TrEMBL record:
The gene is cobD. It comes from the Bacteria. It holds the Pfam family CobD_Cbib. It is found in: Cell membrane. Converts cobyric acid to cobinamide by the addition of aminopropanol on the F carboxylic group. One of its GO terms (cellular component) is plasma membrane. This is Cobalamin biosynthesis protein CobD. Belongs to the CobD/CbiB family. The keyword Transport does not apply. It is a multi-pass membrane protein. GO terms for biological process: cobalamin biosynthetic process.
Amino acid sequence: MRNATSTAVGLVLGFVLDRVLGDPRRWHPVAGFGSAAAALEDKTYADDRRAGVVHEVIAVGSVVGIGVLVTRGSGSGPGAVLATALATWTALGGRSLVRVGHAMADRLDAGDLDGARELLPSLCGRDPSVLDADGLARAALESIAENTSDAAVAPLLWGAVAGVPGVLGYRAVNTLDAMIGYRNERYERFGWAAARTDDVANLVPARVTGLLTAVLAPIVGGTARASLRAWRRDAGTHPSPNAGVVEASMAGALGVRLGGRTEYRHGVELRPTLGEGAAPTVGDLRRAVRMSGGVQVGAVVVAVVVAGVCGRGGRG
């Protein structure tokens, strides 16, 4: 049985490690998983949903299995705290997200469009070569909103509910979605399982992110009412059941309009309008980064509470 205190303390320490150290510069476990998943794809790929299910089960199941072994081997007390902290640090990407957001805003303020375009792929998969300054600001802002949920809130919540296996398993699910969860010729069927699994894994975290965004809207000059109104009115029009929630709530909190023509390397999508007001500027991007930082801290508090509730439920 997981100890609720060890889990909660480990999550907090993992968050602190991410804030102080950021992502490991070399030998990042997520990068290693990506390489292993790519090698596995060479063996499992077929233009078929069943092959994609097999790929997902093997890749994610292996990581969850490692998490279970780590949990059993670490026991309770300091060992469990350390294991949870290291797993959380590995899975989180909050500091890197905030740092890249600030760097993007700095380059746009300086008029360095080439530098901003060079930086955009570290945030999202859009084609930076076709974007002007406003387009780069909008792309970065939307990515900040979505990745606040994916890279910070979701790992913490999964860790609170399921400990080390939950943290590592979620990161595996999210990484696979980023690798193969596309609607293109190669992955339309093979990547179906990865995309749907990621949707399910993020259903609750995205909504927690939306609620935290609404609650914290005053720190960026917005209101909870405007954030919730945009969420309620616009989120359902987005093609993603989760990205729509976090982007709409962010748009409402900031008082800006997101969505519209969105160009990826694999094609063009016409996204629905989220929020109301003017298109986002560099100043709005900086406000979004500030909101992301606040939501991440709020998520730690929520995760600690959830870990305590789950621990009491387990003992009962």
